[in-house]
Amino acid sequence: MNLRKVIIAPDSFKGALSAREASDIIASAVSEKFPDCEIVKMPIADGGEGSVDAVLTAVGGEIFETDVLSPDNRQIKASFGITANSTAVIEMAQSSGITRQTGLNPMTSNTFGFGQLILAALDKDVKSFTLCIGGSATTDGGCGMAAALGVRFLDKRGDFFIPTGERLCDIVDLDISGIDKRIATSNFKVMCDVDNPLFGKSGAAYIYAPQKGANPGQVRILDDGLCHFGVILEKFFGKSYSELPGAGAAGGLGAGCMAFLGAGLKSGIDLLLDLCNFKSQVKDADLVITGEGKLDSQSFRGKVLSGILREAGDVPVWSICGVSDCDADFLSEHGVLVFQASEGISVEESMREPEKYLRIAAQRAVAEWGLV
Asked: Positive or negative CA dihedral for 220, 198, 49, 188?
């Protein structure tokens, strides 16, 4: 049976291949077997590094670069994208990510550079924003971002300062009179795949700060600060953000984006599929091929695969992954056919030569078309 149109929409294979590299390899295997097949490459990211590249690969656009402050206050270069339909796509990992600092600085890292990226996009006359907030180094509630946009924070002496995680408890009041006026006339959506509240045992500090280098004592200080920050936001805006799902994303940046930008937090995969026009593209597709490094039960809960399954309708969905932890009955129940790059070899061996073994798995998959 001929394969007329396929959508190739993999996530990255963490530690081995980017989503773009994976989509190129799978596409090559498809074209070898079906040279006349229309191939739509749609590399997917989860809101962290690679999100801008994924969107612009799918819909077109342009990359811009500017100078910003890193999480540890060094001048660095950071980029953002503007799609062909004038939506700015900004990764906080570009400016305020854990890889953009020297060492781990859980108490003092800040999101000021992220605010600078937003300003740079505003200077391009953009009104629509998609903010990707994965991979953060910070636990400052988005105060650095807000300060870059013109918000001023006051301490008990009435002095203005830029709060970091360790100084959130020093905030006494806010002054938003100087916030960039263009914020009010712009639309902000945040890619967010977590539902953590701002503070508490399942909040930003306790769940994520240890990954950013915080010890138990520092986690308690950061959590107390986020709790205090939530009180300040509620007092100032007349609305509680602390318990809203995703408020604790990216060290509380989720709450900061909602409060200072009026942003809506959306499922990352749903937002990305929307930006990539997946619904329109899948209507006449014969097959969707996705993929990721490790496929497990979490893949079906708010991740890339779950979003694709939801939007694909009756179009078959196949996953080419590094390794799968799901049994055959579970996969059959969810209607997914899986091919593993590590089949017949160890996972370690498959990761030593990821291009080779992903290509083999992809060739094995396309050979199955019309037989299953």
From this structure: negative
- CB of 8 closer than 8 Å to CB of 289: yes
The domain tally of the chain equals 2
Q: Kindly state whether residues 30 and 171 are assigned to the same domain.
A: no
* Structural tokens at position 197: 């509240």
Q: Are residues 95 and 117 in the same domain?
A: yes
**pLDDT tens sequence across 58-102:** 788 999 999 999 999 999 999 999 999 999 999 999 999 999 999
Say if 221 falls within a structural domain. Answer: yes
- Mean pLDDT score of the chain: 93
Angle, vertex CA 141, rays to CA 129 and CA 176, nearest 5: 70
In a domain, 276, yes or no: no
Residue 255 has pLDDT above 90, yes or no: yes
Tokens, residue 199: 């503070």
Pairing of strands 75-83, 87-91: antiparallel
Q: What is the pTM of this model?
A: 0.84
- Is there a single domain that holds both residue 200 and residue 82? yes
21 CA to centre of own chain: 18
- Please give the Cα distance from 57 to 18 (Å, whole number): 13
Average pLDDT over residues 267-272: 83
Contact criterion met (CB below 8 Å) for 138 and 71: yes
Q: Same domain, yes or no, for 31 and 75? A: no
- Measured at the CA of 43, the angle between CA 254 and CA 58, to 5 degrees, comes to 90
Range scoring the smallest mean pLDDT among 49-58, 319-328, 332-341: 49-58
- Give the three-class secondary structure for 356: helix
Cα(346)–Cα(324) distance, rounded to whole angstroms? 12
Indicate if 222 and 286 belong to the same structural domain.
Answer: no
Lowest mean pLDDT among 53-62, 141-150, 190-199, 259-268: 53-62
- How far apart, in whole angstroms, are the C-alpha atoms of residue 124 and residue 113? 17
Closest CA to 270 of 352, 190, 215: 190
Q: What is the CATH number of the domain that holds 118?
A: 3.90.1510.10
pLDDT of residue 46: 67
Among 241, 268, 295, identify where a domain stops: 268
Residue 215's domain spans which residues?
A: 51-268
pLDDT in tens, 134-178: 889 999 999 999 999 999 999 999 999 999 999 999 999 999 999
